[in-house]
Amino acid sequence: MTSLNTCEFHRFVHETIATTFEILVDVDDSDYAGQAAGEAFRELDRLEAKLSRFEESSDVSRINRSPTEAPIAVSFETFACLSLALRISRETNGAFDITAPESGFKGIDLAKETLSVTLYRQGLNIDLGA
Q1: Contact at 8 Å (CB) between 34 and 41?
Q2: How distant is the alpha carbon of residue 63 from its chain centre?
Q3: What is the spatial distance between Cα 11 and Cα 83, in angstroms, rounded to a whole number?
Q4: Is the dihedral of CA 26, 30, 35, 39 positive or negative?
Q5: 3-state class of 123 per DSSP?
Q6: How many Å apart are CA 82 and CA 90, to the nearest integer?
Q7: Around 122, how many Cα atoms within 13 Å sit in the side-chain half-sphere?
Q8: Within a 10 A sphere around the Cβ of 107, how many other Cβ atoms?
Q9: Edge-to-edge, what's the strand order for the sheet holding 2-6?
Q10: Are 103 and 124 within 8 A, CB to CB?
């Protein structure tokens, strides 16, 4: 985390999820500003560990490596993210698609009762960089 003071704001920069995040905090207490920004960045790192296709132990990587028709239990955050992506895919008639090759979520089953994801098409992968 990088702290750069500009004007009356405390500015913090952090690289994660292949993106540069910037937080501006408008408080006088620079220690408090740093703690708040640090917590936000830790949360981003925690989510990256679950959602990145590049992190070998992430839920998304485990789904992508799973055998066809094998349900994979995932975290609540991963399930919520995939559910939202599915809803957006439907609302945009497939214009938004996190699958590769594009499938419009055909071949993926999300089981809310067990917080699990099953791929039914060989070679289908999830990529949240959509």
Answers
A1: no
A2: 14
A3: 33
A4: positive
A5: coil
A6: 12
A7: 0
A8: 15
A9: 2-6, 9-16, 19-25
A10: yes
Instruction: Decide if 27 contacts 12 (C-beta within 8 A).
Output: no
Instruction: Indicate the SS3 state at residue 30.
Output: helix
Tokens of 44: 């981003």
Report the alpha-carbon distance of residue 81 to residue 67 in Å, rounded. Answer: 22
pTM (2 decimals)? 0.81
pLDDT tens digit string along 34-68?
A: 999 999 999 999 999 999 999 999 999 999 999 99
Q: How confident is the model at residue 17 (pLDDT cuts 50, 70, 90)?
A: confident
Between CA 6 and CA 70 the distance in angstroms is 51
Owner of token pair 């994801």: 117
Provide the residue ranges of all domains of the chain, joining segments of one domain with +: 2-51, 59-126
